[in-house]
């Protein structure tokens, strides 16, 4: 599922050497306007954040943070591409992400439909087997405009063997939990693969 990161060639991209800080790529997928950019911005303010490499560039929609969790440091690169610019397929083959976050807004059914289409694609291409995929229902603060219940969101994630969380980047609800959840999923998968 996917092949070749655009700057592969540097071994520091991989997490095989014990002395190096592992670096993980996380692609954000979902319709425009669901809050992907806002979520990544909120990650920057997380209490788990160690350092934020400000030199890394908005030009490619990439942001790198160093996260300290359970006494271990990891670098996480968040890649946020508007769907119109890059199809899911393209995005996966270009970046070879360790994890994907599929985001919808709990206030807009069309965004949930898009999330379902993306998950169907990931499932069909066997991507869910080899990377961590997390379904995120964002804008949970907008309770009165809610059209997707938590159960419906959870149901979609469970059907596709993915984790699920509702967040609000607006009021910082579950944003840390999402950040830590992604990293834990990636580490768990990596430790299972090493066995
Ligand atoms: P993207 O296109 O998926 O990157 O979406 P953005 O991060 O640009 O967000 C689109 C709009 O939704 C902006 O006006 C944000 O302020 C707003 N937004 C994002 N997350 C939330 C949230 O959790 N709650 C509320 N109320 N608004 C949000």
TrEMBL record:
Family to which the UniProt record says this protein belongs: Belongs to the small GTPase superfamily. RGK family.
Name this protein carries in UniProt: GTP-binding protein GEM-like
Residue range from the parent sequence: 156 to 350 of 396
Species the sequence originates in: Sitophilus oryzae
């Amino acid at each position: 599922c996917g092949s070749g990161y655009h700057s592969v060639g540097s071994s520091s991209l991989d997490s095989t050497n014990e002395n190096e800080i592992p670096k993980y790529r996380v692609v954000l997928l979902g319709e425009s306007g669901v809050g992907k950019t806002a979520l990544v911005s909120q990650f920057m303010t997380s209490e788990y954040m160690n350092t934020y490499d400000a030199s890394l560039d908005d030009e490619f929609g990439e942001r790198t943070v160093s996260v300290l969790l359970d006494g271990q440091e990891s670098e996480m690169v968040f890649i946020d591409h508007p769907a119109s610019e890059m199809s899911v397929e393209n995005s996966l083959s270009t970046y070879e992400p360790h994890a994907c976050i599929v985001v919808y807004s709990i206030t807009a059914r069309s965004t949930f439909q898009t999330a379902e289409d993306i998950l169907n694609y990931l499932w069909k291409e066997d991507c869910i087997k080899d990377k961590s995929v997390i379904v995120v229902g964002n804008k949970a603060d907008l309770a009165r405009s809610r059209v997707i219940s938590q159960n419906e969101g959870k149901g979609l994630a469970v059907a596709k063997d993915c984790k699920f969380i509702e967040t609000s980047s607006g009021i910082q609800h579950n944003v840390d939990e999402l950040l830590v959840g992604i990293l834990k999923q990636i580490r768990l998968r990596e430790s299972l693969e090493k066995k």
